[in-house]
Amino acid sequence: MNRPTLWMEPAAEPQTVESLNRRVAKLERINAALMAHVERTMDQQGGAYSLFQTAIMLEGRVRARTEELTALMHSLERSNEAMQAAKEEAETANRSKTRFLAAASHDLLQPLNAARLSLSALTDLAPGPESKAVARQVERGLETIEDLIKALIDISKLDAGIVRPVVKPVRLADLVAGIEASFRPFAERKELRLVTRCADLVVETDGVLLQRILQNLVSNAIRYTERGGVLIAARRRDKLCRIDVVDTGCGIPENERALVFEEFFRGGREGDDGGVGLGLGLSIVQRTASTLGHAIALHSRTGHGTRLSLTLPLAAQRPDARVTLAPLATALTGARVLAIENDASTAEALQRLLRSWDAEVQVFRDLAGVVAALGAGLARPDVMVIDYHLDNGACGLDVVDYLRRDRGWVTPVILTTADHGADIAARAQATGAELVHKPIKPAQLRSLLAYMLA
Known about the structure:
Residues 336-453 form the Response regulatory domain. Its EC number is 2.7.13.3. The longest helix has 109 residues, at 17-125. It is elongated, with a radius of gyration of 45 Å. Strands 2-4-5-7-6 form a five-stranded mixed sheet, with helices on one face. Strands 9-8-10-11-12 form a five-stranded parallel sheet, with helices on both faces. A two-stranded antiparallel ribbon has the order 1-3. Helix 3 (172-189) packs parallel to helix 4. 54% of the residues lie in helices and 16% in strands. The protein has helices at 17-125, 129-160, 172-189, 207-223, 281-292, 344-356, 367-375, 397-407, 422-431, 442-453, and strands spanning 168-171, 193-198, 202-205, 229-237, 240-247, 295-301, 305-313, 336-340, 360-364, 383-387, 413-417, 434-437. With 454 residues, it is an alpha/beta fold. Residues 3-10, 270-276 and 321-330 have low confidence and may be disordered. It has a domain at 167-313: Histidine kinase-like ATPase, C-terminal domain (Heat Shock Protein 90), CATH 3.30.565.10. The protein has ten helices and twelve strands.
């Protein structure tokens, strides 16, 4: 009978040295594989941990930089606010300074006005050569004070930015002719030639401001020229116009050319009267030209002369028809003049001066005085000379309005004031009055009166 065969595990390999070595080698391979696996695992975990640490570190740095930037932005905002406040404070101070100078100039120019009017009358009363020389010396001193006050006011207004140019077409030949007529006596007194070469050009500018620029340039040229002459030339340059004021004076050294437009810089050059100028003329010229947007350039050769050039645009259209002035009369004999002046010394000087010209003068301090005189039979005047600023805030033009409304008197008016404000000029123009700034120049007043009476 066959018995089933039973499966039995193979007999264990005899524990020989070789078999043991094989088992050791196998275990070593397994151990090496396990160690490699553990190392790879550890490397992966270590990299993630390093990235985690790096992220934390970067986050801290970003937070710190953000805080620094935020603090810096807040500091900049505070600085900007402080700068804006300082700017506004400076602008307010500048405007206050301008208002103060304008108000102070009225009080300063009032006595100057009275002194010049009285001096003119005194010169007529004492015609001797010695008295005329003394009077001329006093007048020069008054002119210097007047020029300084006006220059400081002009600079203050230009710096404050309250000068608003009224740009319109201006016929250049008329403006240059007026400047030539004004300065020719000064040039002839120094035996200098004053020549103009001006084409019939119309420029786009503010006529009043351009006139001031050229007056300063021509005045400087004549002052610092001892022989030869001064040339005012205007010519077309494409769509622009260039105005040159050329002199044959002492010239300006190269090291001073960058300084001549600074305030009170005079370079030590003597003027025609043995003294030096105020050093404000070219400073005003530069500021005014900048306000108008006109370029100004200087060219000079020491010992040969100087050329100052102003470039401005030509106008697209021509101005209104040319106005031809009638010849001026010189006699004021018998003319009835009504004067309104609240300053006692100025009123007395004005009355004395007008009477020295053989005019019939009546002076009042305010509207109430005029109304009282009307009740006493005041006759209609031929011309009125009225101060703008009266006592207690009253305005001289109120007298004009009253006489026109109550009496129907449309009488020529000369409005006098030490205030150069644009609003006063506008009111004078609206009233039809001729505006004369104080201190009043007697010759100017006499010519204007003669023209208005003619």
